[in-house]
Amino acid sequence: MPEASSPAGLEDHLGYWLRLVSNAVSQSFARRVEAEGVTVAEWVVLRALYGVEPMAPSQLAERMGMTKGAISKLADRLVAKDLVERREAGGDGRRQSLALRPQGHALVPRLAALADQNDAGSFEGLAPEERRELERLLRKLAAAHHLTAAPTA
After folding, report:
1. How far is CA 127 from CA 62, 112, 119, in A?
2. DSSP sequence for 61-126
3. CA 15 to chain centre
4. What share of the chain is helix, strand, coil (3-state, %, to 5)?
5. pLDDT tens digits, one per residue of 98-147
6. Is 37-144 a domain of CATH 1.10.10.10?
7. What is the pLDDT of residues 48-80, one digit of tens each?
8. What global pTM score does this model have?
């Protein structure tokens, strides 16, 4: 009986290499922001609220490609950390909006600098034109697959 061909190895898949690099970049960034007292998901919410008018949780959920429940849980954590506040919206106590508190507003530029440092360190092995090409290709794949949700994990 003829022997079946061997299955492809892990390293034969482009997804393996994407995941390997993605995990390293993500874990490095998570350690950096956690040292500042927030999670990556919380950072994403803080950044989305930075420089904008107070926003309804449902609008934030839509903008970030997340469920209202997930936004509600993240907002609860950020309110407890005194980084975000809930405000009554439109004179209706049932409608709320989310806004950064001064501490949250001050934290965003520090976390953004950590993100910049993490990117610089993670991709320092690439020449500037290689980095631009990698970004172009990843954006092309994201668009082709309609990937719009903000990565939070």
Report:
1. 36, 22, 13
2. HHHHT--HHHHHHHHHHHHHTTSEEEEEETTEEEEEEEEE-HHHHHHHHHHHHHHHHHHHHHTTTS
3. 20
4. 60, 10, 30
5. 999 999 999 999 999 999 999 999 999 999 999 999 999 999 999 999 98
6. yes
7. 999 999 999 999 999 888 899 999 999 999 999
8. 0.86
